[in-house]
Amino acid sequence: GWRPRGTLVYLAVADEEAMGTHGAQWLVDNAWDDVRCDFLVTEFGGAKLPLGSGARLIMVAEKGSHWVRLRTRGVPGHGSMPFRSENAAVKMAEVIRRVAAYRPAADLHETWRRFVEAIGLPGAQGMLLSRRWGLELALSRAKAIGVARMLHAATHTTFSPNILRSGVKINVIPESAEADIDIRTLPGVDGPEVRRMLREAIGDLWSEVEIVAEGDNLATASPADTPLWRTLESVTARLIPGGTVAPFIVVGATDSRFFRRKGVTAYGYGLLSDKIPFDQFARMFHGRNERIDQESLRLMVELWDGTAREMLGS
Question: Digits of tens for pLDDT over the chain (314 positions)?
């Protein structure tokens, strides 16, 4: 029998994994009057961080995604005579090795600094995460690899070669090779800066590489001092006694960016139980046995119900 004082919009879209082009982006671009809102809650967040106060992370920002397809050229020939051949696949293999080994400097951006302050790390630990050299040292020595990967991605523009294509037949030296690179950018990093990084990574082979496809979604962020933040903080503390929250940056991509571009305050948040530790949670995405436990599902339902009731009145 509850009737909200405002309007509650529920969106269920199926193509977030395809960058949201025909789902959230289409709705924002073509049906804005139907989905217009002041605040948005979407995926991610809510796992208890095994650092400092053990806060649960609310995603107030999101890295950009800059997917790139690279191509190298060679000279086709018979695979039985590889001596002094120009093999596009071999050339691309070296390009990929260089890109994978590239390590741009850490960027301790505003969201990161607020995160470190909010989780209340004691003494030297807080100092380490507040300095570039300290962060790199901590990440290199961390035993919890899932946590280390998440914190590294939150402070670095990353380059991951994930799809390779080359060759038409086992006995033909390939004339061309392609590689798709998943590049995730920090706030302030745009297309020209990504190209500069790629050129730095690839070095003297840069003249041998073509960029044949490129997509650029810049990083986005929302303020944390909002009614929605205070509501999520309040409902979290009610459902999990002593539970605290801290701001963080999504290292992948969600549909929130389309709404932020319209001025909407958008956060990524759920509420996960302690049955799946944060380190395991961070390693499950697109991995083996990706799942959620029943207690987490219950907590999320109660979180979203409580959030709607507090934001829209009882």
Answer: 788 889 999 999 887 777 788 999 999 999 999 999 999 999 888 888 988 889 999 999 999 999 999 999 999 999 999 999 999 999 999 999 999 999 999 999 999 999 999 998 888 888 899 999 999 999 999 999 999 999 999 999 999 999 999 999 999 999 999 999 999 999 999 999 999 999 999 999 999 999 998 888 999 999 999 999 999 999 999 999 999 999 999 999 899 999 999 999 999 999 998 888 888 887 877 777 888 889 999 999 999 999 999 999 85
- Rounded Cα distance between 167 and 27, Å, is 40
Same domain, 138 and 186: yes
Residue 238 token pair:
């009610």
CA–CA distances in Å: residue 32 to residues 24, 35, 36, 38, 64: 10, 5, 5, 12, 23
Same domain, 211 and 227: no
The verdict on 201 and 77 lying in the same domain is yes
Q: What is the CATH number of the domain that holds 50?
A: 3.40.630.10
Q: Check: CB of residue 108 under 8 Å from CB of residue 39.
A: no
Residue 78 lies in a domain: yes
Model-level pTM?
0.92
Backbone angles phi, psi at 173, to 5 degrees: -65, 125
**Domain housing 139:** 64-217
